[in-house]
């Protein structure tokens, strides 16, 4: 049996989340949309669109339709994507991307006269996100690995948004999924199980990863 969750904040568009009943996430979604102060603009890699465990529909189901927009693609330009270009040019727009050059959001908010109104999020694997970020000049904005509570002080919203994700992880573990630590964590804590590569290029890449340097 498949359970379908229907959600609409305006009545003219529905979001469907079809999953087997025993792993249905509907009970973990908010009854009403969370009225956040920040707009989210999600840039989704095409490979993520059809994944069974994709999480963007869960986020969209928790927020008002006008607060969460999703754009699918790899390459974007001002000519082909005027709406995205306009969003990127706004002074209150930030892009979420970790790296050595990322700004500290708490300090940024204190120093900037403009409060962030839009957050651009890249949805994909690390390599996919890196490819999208560095090959699209539109995304040359202040970057930040941030705590959402700095932008929206309602901590209960954060917990509500985490509930479906926590349920999704729990369902996976209940059905045979294994907890795996990131390569970065294993390297930093000296518990990487494989021998270090002899290839100088690969060795250098792993050294950069250990030092949290953008690679």
Overview of the structural elements:
This is tRNA-uridine aminocarboxypropyltransferase. Keywords: S-adenosyl-L-methionine, Transferase, tRNA processing. InterPro entries: DTW, DTWD2/TAPT. GO terms for molecular function: tRNA-uridine aminocarboxypropyltransferase activity. It catalyses: a uridine in tRNA + S-adenosyl-L-methionine = a 3-[(3S)-3-amino-3-carboxypropyl]uridine in tRNA + S-methyl-5'-thioadenosine + H(+). The structure is a single chain. The chain is an alpha/beta fold and 215 residues long. The chain has two domains: 35-175, no CATH class; 180-214, no CATH class. The chain contains seven helices and six strands, in the order βββαβαβαβαααα. The strands form two sheets. A four-stranded parallel β-sheet has the order 4-3-6-5, sandwiched between helices. A two-stranded antiparallel ribbon has the order 1-2. α3 links the parallel β5 and β6. The longest helix has 20 residues, at 155-174. The protein is globular, with a radius of gyration of 19 Å. The model is unreliable at 1-16 (pLDDT under 50).
